[in-house]
């Protein structure tokens, strides 16, 4: 169709936890360089499960995932991690590692089993920390900083991984109003620098501001895939969330505002 | 500026580790002087020099025997056992993402305890006690691990639960062994073994445990940085490129090998595997790159100190398991109170 090749391609994918009921089935998706592919859907529709299949945490029961022209099932974790990085929705911290130590962990895929980070790895980590303006937090324990700063730390960590594709599961879910927009802004910048992004979201409005493509997940599959302006309409939103919304043309962008329940 | 900060931090950890190492070496020499038979520092130095150079400095046979046959094996055993339990604890805490885990989480101590009791019931000597406790210690963990593998979607929680189940199973077997044991000969032997002691350790026993201990400790030290990544959670570690299953297996095998080896010569010694990694973390932070070497040295130092107390304070030896808990528990509470860190 286009001459830019897909960085990630999910083909006829199905997954079930218990071999009885599929969470999703025959699902297809493609992501290209520079794209921000958003996945919307109600609670429990299987967004996170899909994300965990894409990242290789869950194994598909049917279908395959092609990452960088290679079938992911044949790749080792370190090979996958060199192309794809992931920031989960929740992180439970146990040990108070410094921000720098956490960011350095992104180098794992590039190091052999007996290796520790070298001077070169430190430089890469420091560059990532600098690019996100969190240099002042470098030696601070990462579980003592704010949610927004923690999200930036994790973004720095995935940058250190030097991936081509970044997968984010609800990157704005624990952030305040301002930090949500700041985090989205970082994501947009990364896409502009050439990363492909897949992210789930609970906010159609965030998809309108930042997404380049959106899929709505419902009834074990995508019910519609397309540009945010086309897909996010009042009919689809009502179908997905069961509420009425109003799409407002603000000139520079569209906004999706929920209406009061009747 | 930030580079300097990092250098400072790593310098801090290097100097702290050097200091700990020097303290351990000092205690190593002091330990030769302690005991019922008085030996002077001069005699110790002479004896060691003569051993190395082969020159006879005219030391009495008694002094040499006490230094090399009695005190040296014991000192080495304390160092090895302390280091082993401590690094196994630090590694397990990282692997299980839980600072309250101790090396016997997967049933190794219960297994080893039963093995030792079985050997005593069979009228075995020290060799059989050591061999069976080592074998049953390994066996308990192997069974826990294989059992947890039969569940779908193996998680660390399943493994821990299997470990608890297998652990209490072997505890029950141990109780049976105690119940049927001859109450005047075998039962006290079992009970004393379970309290932990290095009093009768021989050079031969040390040589036997040296290989599994060194293999386990070396591998753990080599992979120590990856423990940081593993401790962030299985899913995150996997997506950062770590083969989590493989890492779990390596860490469990190494920790079990060294814990079983340690327990097989010392009996059950609690607290070291739990407390020492905490103290090391408090001094040097949570980075496993520094934490593991520090735990080795600190664990060796602590058990050597405790063993010295055990053999000198009273005329009758105090079992090590009692002393480590008596000293370790209050110290641990004190550290918790003093520390600002949140552990759980």
Q: What attributes characterize this protein structure?
A:
heterodimer; A: 262 residues; six-stranded mixed beta sheet; 32% helix; B: 344 residues; 14 helices; globular
Descriptive overview:
The complex is a heterodimer of chains A (262) and B (344). Chain A is globular, with a radius of gyration of 19 Å. In chain A, helix 4 (119-131) packs across helix 5. Chain A has 9 helices and 12 strands. In chain A, strand 4 (62-67) and strand 5 (70-71) form a beta hairpin. By secondary structure, chain A is an alpha/beta fold. In chain A, strands 6-7-8-3-9-10 form a 6-stranded mixed sheet, sandwiched between helices. With 344 residues, chain B is mainly α. Chain B has helices at 2-33, 41-53, 61-95, 108-121, 126-149, 156-180, 186-195, 203-222, 224-230, 234-239, 244-266, 272-284, 288-312, 320-338. Chain B is globular. The A-B interface holds A 52, 55-57, 76-82, 84-86, 88, 91-92, 94-98, 100-102, 105-106, 108-111, 113-117, 122, 126, 135, 138-139, 161 and B 2-3, 5-6, 9, 94, 97-99, 222-226, 228-229, 231-233, 235-244, 281, 285-287, 289, 341.
Distance from N terminus to C terminus of chain A (CA atoms, Å) equals 44 Å
Regions with little confidence, pLDDT below 50 for 5+ residues of chain B: none
Order of helices and strands of chain A: EEEHEEHEHHHEHEHEEHHEE
**Order of helices and strands of chain B, N to C?**
HHHHHHHHHHHHHH
Roughly how much helix do the residues of chain B carry, as a percent range?
A: over 70%
Distance between the termini of chain B: 33 Å
- Strand pairing plus helix content of chain A: what structural class? alpha/beta
Figure out the total of helices of chain B. Answer: 14
Strand content of chain A: 25-35%
Protein chain pair with the most extensive contact, residues per chain: A-B, 42 and 35 residues
Mean pLDDT of chain B: 90
**Which overall shape of chain A is indicated by the principal axes computed on the Cα atoms?**
globular
Largest sheet of chain A: 6 strands, mixed
Per DSSP E runs of 2 or more residues, the count of β-strands of chain B stands at 0
Number of DSSP helices of chain A? Answer: 9
Report the portion of residues of chain B in β strands.
under 5%
Give a count of the beta strands of chain A, DSSP E runs of length 2 or more: 12
Query: Which structural class is indicated by helix and strand composition of chain B?
Result: mainly alpha
Q: Average the pLDDT over all residues of chain A and give the rounded result.
A: 93
